């Protein structure tokens, strides 16, 4: 009788603590804030090859389940041979990205704007090209230059000093000039060559032309 | 010989006097040289708006360029004419005032304008008019504008609070009244003589909380509720294992999508340049931030982090939010460019998120659900013509992603 008493107490305690434990566990699984949440089969979730946009430099991360040959943690994903151990690298200097339109790389420097202004747009002012240019314009230009090119986009008003395409000084700028300005920027406008590929810049220039003429 | 010397002396004196007089005129009479004629002012206002001077200049206060008020006191009119026509040429020629301006405001250069002298003078006239007769109605207009929406938004909050408080007071009063009534009735019944024993018991019955709690019905209900809730919680919790929905890590820079994509309406593709051409949407590099932040909010400590990164070349280590398991393949261009799916379909109302969190569960069931329910837009794509024809022979529903292999295992797992 006396011997049994503590075990009864234990059972009573277990009765209470098991659902509590389960509750605590269950609540602790969900992702929130900085916590990614509990993972099922983490070895299948984490990439073994270098993942360009995932950078885990901590060699201890996931060590508890690691069976890697280099004895690092299972989640470690960094390339120590790159600057800052990054998984991404800049393209090699002087290399050219191939593009579907077989365009040659644009070599004019920022100051060569007079020479650039004489270059013709390789795309015709067809309806399709202008429609595509319009689509790209809404993605890359509209927030500053405005839907109708008056310089009245939401960001443009905050930035101040965005000229209208129809202003006398801008109205007659050539296609080559527009292309060059998108590529290298001008005055307070930044260079957008890294964001927008060459063919897309020419298509945008075609649409801007329609805005100049409105 | 003497005569010659005198002439030279006279001439020099005259020249000196002239210089003095003219310089005096320049520093005093410049403002008066600007016309105040109403027709000219109207013409100037028209030009000011047409040439969008206000995108860079305020009449009072610095903007991208200097304030225009009093420019006719600071500078020679001829200087203003040639500056407006071609400022860069003046800087190149080494004009001291022009160089000083350039040094203060570069890299913002003033665009050359194809204006006549009298047109520039008309703009000056407009500026002078605004400076000397500041529009009085401007303040009242903005004041009215601020009051407008506040007044028009229905019942003010303070009234609501008062109404709620009044209701609570009324309820408390009713409770007090009820308690009093019960008390009075009890007393009346207790005092009454001709009442049966049974009824007396009911009158004198005391409510016992302990007995109520210990009654089997209450224990049964409470136990059932606890077990049911616990079970629901456990099952819900088990479903979140391996699902990172709601993950919202702190980023190295407190970037707000609500401000950039919401308030300023910058398209997603402006920064996430890979979204139409590759697997990843990509995180923008510092040079894209600098397209605006080279001159916007330059004093903010968060923006200073950008400058530090640009200077040192050290990458900003943003924390990846959407960690699709390595066992599944996903391609952005395939969905956004080919499928025409909106960013918000999977990422939620990003333009309203101060801190971005994972909106969708990114589970297989979630992917499959969309593949089953999304019909294809095959319009104008000859590749699908025959396929659609064959599909329509056997099915009454429009062709969707699942019909062209959207449920094949090897589409995503290989």
UniProtKB/TrEMBL annotation, chain A:
SUPFAM superfamilies, sorted: Cytochrome c (SSF46626)
The UniProt record lists the keyword Chaperone: no
Every Cytochrome c domain range: 128-212
Signal peptide: 1-31
Matches recorded under PROSITE patterns: CYTC, PROKAR_LIPOPROTEIN
Key words of the record: Heme, Iron, Metal-binding, Signal
Family matches, as Pfam families: Cytochrome_CBB3
Name of the protein in question: Cytochrome c domain-containing protein
Species, as recorded: Roseivirga thermotolerans
TrEMBL record, chain B:
Source taxon at top rank: Bacteria
CDD domains: Cytochrom_C3
Alphabetic keyword roster: Electron transport, Heme, Iron, Membrane, Metal-binding, Signal, Transmembrane, Transmembrane helix, Transport
Gene3D superfamilies given in the database record: Cytochrome c-like domain, Cytochrome C3
First and last residue of the signal peptide: 1-29
InterPro entries documented for this protein: Cyt_c-like_dom, Cyt_c-like_dom_sf, Cyt_c_III_dom, Multihaem_cyt_sf
Domain Cytochrome c: 39-131
Protein name (Swiss-Prot/TrEMBL): Cytochrome c
Source lineage: Bacteria, Pseudomonadati, Bacteroidota, Cytophagia, Cytophagales
């Amino acid at each position: 009788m006396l011997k049994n008493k503590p075990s009864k107490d234990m059972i009573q305690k277990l009765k209470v603590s098991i659902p509590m434990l389960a509750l605590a566990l269950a609540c602790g699984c969900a992702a929130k804030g900085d916590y990614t949440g509990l993972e099922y089969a983490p070895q299948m979730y984490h990439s073994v090859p270098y993942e360009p946009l995932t950078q885990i430099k901590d060699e201890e991360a996931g060590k508890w389940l690691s069976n890697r040959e280099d004895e690092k943690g299972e989640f470690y994903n960094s390339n120590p041979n790159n600057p800052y151990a990054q998984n991404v690298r800049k393209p090699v200097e002087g290399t050219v990205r191939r593009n579907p339109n077989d365009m040659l790389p644009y070599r004019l420097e920022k100051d060569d704007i007079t020479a650039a202004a004489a270059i013709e747009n390789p795309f015709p002012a067809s309806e399709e090209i202008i429609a595509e240019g319009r689509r790209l314009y809404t993605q890359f230009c509209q927030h500053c230059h405005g839907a109708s090119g008056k310089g009245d986009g939401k960001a443009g008003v905050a930035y101040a000093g965005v000229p209208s395409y129809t202003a006398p000084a801008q109205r007659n700028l050539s296609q080559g000039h527009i292309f060059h300005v998108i590529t290298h920027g001008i005055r307070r406008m930044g260079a957008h060559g890294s964001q927008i590929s060459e063919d897309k810049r020419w298509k945008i220039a075609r649409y801007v032309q329609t805005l100049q003429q409105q | 010989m003497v005569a010659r010397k005198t002439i030279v002396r006279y001439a020099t004196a005259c020249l000196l006097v002239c210089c003095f007089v003219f310089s005096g005129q320049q520093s005093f009479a410049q403002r008066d040289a600007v016309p105040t004629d109403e027709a000219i002012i109207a013409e100037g206002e028209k030009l000011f708006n047409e040439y969008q001077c206000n995108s860079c200049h305020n009449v009072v206060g610095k903007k991208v360029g200097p304030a225009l008020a009093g420019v006719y006191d600071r500078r020679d009119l001829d200087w203003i004419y040639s500056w407006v026509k071609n400022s860069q040429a003046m800087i190149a020629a080494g004009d001291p005032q022009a160089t000083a301006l350039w040094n203060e405001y570069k890299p913002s250069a003033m665009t050359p304008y194809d204006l006549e002298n009298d047109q520039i003078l008309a703009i000056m006239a407009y500026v002078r008019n605004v400076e000397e007769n500041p529009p009085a109605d401007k303040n009242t207009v903005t004041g009215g504008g601020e009051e407008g929406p506040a007044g028009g938004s229905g019942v003010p909050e303070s009234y609501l609070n008062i109404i709620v408080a009044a209701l609570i007071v009324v309820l408390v009063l009713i409770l007090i009244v009820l308690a009093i009534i019960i008390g009075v009735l009890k007393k009346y019944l207790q005092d009454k003589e001709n009442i049966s024993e049974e009824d007396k018991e009911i009158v004198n019955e005391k409510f016992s909380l302990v007995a109520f709690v210990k009654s089997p019905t209450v224990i049964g209900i409470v136990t059932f509720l606890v077990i049911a809730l616990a079970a629901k919680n456990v099952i819900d919790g088990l479903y979140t294992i391996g699902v990172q929905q709601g993950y919202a890590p702190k980023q190295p820079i407190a970037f707000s999508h609500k401000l950039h994509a919401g308030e300023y309406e910058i398209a997603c593709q402006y920064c996430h340049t890979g979204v139409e051409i590759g697997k990843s949407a990509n995180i923008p590099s510092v040079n894209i931030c600098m397209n605006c932040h080279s001159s916007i909010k330059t004093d903010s400590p968060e923006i200073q982090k950008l400058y530090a990164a640009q200077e040192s070349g050290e990458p900003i280590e943003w924390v990846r939010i959407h960690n699709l398991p390595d066992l599944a393949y996903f391609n952005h261009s395939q969905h956004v460019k080919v499928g025409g799916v909106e960013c918000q379909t999977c990422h939620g109302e990003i333009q309203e998120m101060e801190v971005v969190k994972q909106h969708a569960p990114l589970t297989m069931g979630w992917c499959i659900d969309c593949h089953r329910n999304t019909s294809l837009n095959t319009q104008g794509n000859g590749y699908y013509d025959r396929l659609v024809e064959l599909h329509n022979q056997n099915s009454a529903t429009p062709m969707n992603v699942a019909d062209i292999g959207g449920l094949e295992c090897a589409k995503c797992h290989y």
